[in-house]
Structure formats: structure tokens, C-alpha cells
Design a protein that fits this description.
three-stranded antiparallel beta sheet, 3 helices, HPr-like, about 80 residues, Histidine-containing Protein, Chain: A, alpha+beta, HPr family phosphocarrier protein, about 20% strand, HPr-like_sf, 3 strands
Amino acid sequence: MSGVGTRAIVEINQVANQFQSSIVIKVGQRYIDVKSILGLSITLFSNEVYQLEIHGPDEAEAKHAMEELFIKHGLPLSED
């Protein structure tokens, strides 16, 4: 299991915190708030598949930004 680098975790967290929307990733049966750097630190591994769940007034912009970051850092997203 290889963990994601600190730079990726910080970048994802900082971008998520720019949005008002709730941004959560689902990993297996767990839900992690992307705005929580601690949650990201213990959750992001390159061999996992993530599902983004975004709700709020700027969800379209947040979804686009998060998808770009996950792709940039080699973190696979599910299409569900």
C-alpha cells in the first residue's frame, strides 16, 4: 500500500476549503470529509478507488476542481 504524498494531501485539502459545498469521498464503507487534513492523511492511498460526493451552492465548480486534482495525483475516481 503506497500512501499519497503530503503535497497532494495539502493541495486537495486547500482547494476543497475554497468551496462552500460539502465535499466527501467515499472509500469502501467509510466517508471522509475532504476538508479534514487528518482524515485525508489516513485515507488517501493510490491503490484505492474513490467516489466524490459534493453538495452545496458551488458543487459544479467544486466537482470539477476535485476531479482535476484527483487525476493530477493519480487517485482513481469511480463513475458512480
